[in-house]
Amino acid sequence: MTNAVSLLLSFFFKRTVSVVIDLHCHTDCSDGSDAPVDVVRLATELGLEALAITDHDTLDGYDMARKQSDLAGCSLICGVELSTHSSRCSRSVHLLAYFFREPGSEFRSWLQELREGRCERNILLQQRLQSLGMEISWSELEAISGKQLGRPHFARLMVKKGYAASLQDAFDRYLAEGRPAYVERNEPALEEAVERVAAAGGIATLAHPARITRDPHTLRSLVADLIPYGLNAIECFHPEHSAEDTNHWLAIASELDLAVTGGSDYHGSYKPDIRLGTGRSGTLHVPSSLFLELKRRFAETVVNA
Ligand code: AMP
Ligand code: FE
Ligand code: FE
Ligand code: ZN
After folding, report:
1. Alpha-carbon distance 204 to 227, whole Å?
2. For ligand 1, which residues put their CB under 6 angstroms from it?
3. Which of 24, 35, 95, 260 is the most exposed place for a label (fewest CB within 10 A)?
């Protein structure tokens, strides 16, 4: 390939992808495979204009990444993903929180409490698996997990040791809600989590709503009821959403005057079919206009930053 052609291609490539952002990804500070510094490097290589690190229950990945000097024009946003319970859904409901101004000590202490609850759950979960005849030791779990142990790590070890055929099989037969190795942890109520995010100055965002329901009427009612607690946004763009889902969620956001977000939910090699920025098979496209709109709507928080 001649230099001129490769330059042209790289220019075109940058032009096409530089209008993309990714507001949902995980690092090895929760259940992703990549170090925060590597996720940010990848984001800059891809020409993403904004990246939010949204690890489960921790800001550690963001804290590490923000020290990185060369972000090459990529705005790094502080984020977190919380698992909550709701009487309207048998599965955990995930809530994303974004902070233009980093949250204070009260919110960070609350995240610490959630992580302690996770540790207590993990101890019971390991005992439960042993009592079901699976030899799953702490040293093996520590070897397979990053900085925070979660059910996906248990699932990986179960596959590795031949107790499950796949990660999904481990969840379906043992780890999912209602299955024999399921142990509840101290997940906050959805309303409480929304209130705490709002009180900490965050943008409370309902994550991947298609996991809750695909029925727009059910979702509209759930979302409308969360607005008084401080819900700000809906994650309309996500690899698990069909085009029809996305259109439904966009219509609900527009009707209820909520902001719109989107992201790949990248977990590195642990979910190898999901690419940072572009999701599954390059089908995700989260326009940077959403980031501008978030800044416009939540300008007060930005000005205070
Ligand atoms: P934890 O936070 O340790 O309870 O693990 C929750 C994570 O496990 C979620 O973020 C999902 O990635 C995964 N997970 C939870 N439920 C299921 C399920 N039924 N099937 C597959 N993965 C699941
Ligand atoms: Fe995850
Ligand atoms: Fe999630
Ligand atoms: Zn996620």
Report:
1. 10
2. 56, 83, 150-152, 168, 171, 176
3. 35
> Pocket of ligand 1, candidates 111, 122, 175, 185: which has the most ligand atoms within 8 Å of its Cβ, to mutate?
175
> Residue 172 CA: which ligand 1 atom is closest?
19
Domain count, the chain: 1
Q: Identify the nearest ligand to the CA of 32 by its number.
A: 2
How sure is the predictor about 70, in pLDDT bands with cuts at 50, 70 and 90? confident
State the pLDDT at residue 145: 87
pLDDT confidence of 73, banded at 50, 70, 90?
confident
Measured in residues, the chain has a length of 305
Residue 55 pLDDT more than 60?
A: yes
Does any domain span residue 154? no
Check residue 69 and give its pLDDT: 67
CA-nearest of 285, 289, 235, 234 to 257 is: 234
Domain membership of residue 292 (yes or no) is yes
